[in-house]
Amino acid sequence: MTGRTTRGHPDIHMSEQNETHTDDPKIHDEIPTEQTQAKQGKAEQVQAEQGKAEQAQAEQVQADQAKAEQAQAEQGKADGIDAPDTEAQELAPTAPVRPEAPTFAELGAREETVAALAAAGIHRAFAIQEYALPIALRGTDLIGQAPTGTGKTLGFGVPLLERVFAPGEGSDGVPQALVVVPTRELGIQVAKDLAAAGRTRGVRVLPIYGGVAYEPQIDALRKGVEILVGTPGRLMDLQKQKHLRLDRIRALVLDEADRMLDLGFLDDVEKILAMLPEDRQTMLFSATMPDPIVTLSRRFLRRPVTIHAGHTAETGPSPQTQQLAYRTHSMNKIEIVARILQAEGRGLTMIFTRTKRAADRVAEDLDFRGFAVAAVHGDLGQGARERALRAFRAGKIDTLVATDVAARGIDVSGVTHVINYDCPEDQDTYTHRIGRTGRAGATGVAVTFVDWDDMPRWRIIDKTLGLDMPEPPETYHTSPHLYSDLAISTEMTGTLPTAERTRAGLSAEVEEDLGGGRPRRGDGPGRPRRGESRSEGRGEGRREGRGRRGRGDAERGGEHGGTPIPDAAGTDAGEEGGRTPRRRRRRRAGEVVPAEQGTVTTATTGVAPLFVSPADHAGATPAAEGTAGPEASGRSEGGARPEGGGKPRRRRRRRSGGGGGSDAPAEATAD
Question: Basic and acidic residues: which segments have biased composition (predicted)?
Answer without folding.
Answer: 8-31, 520-544, 550-559
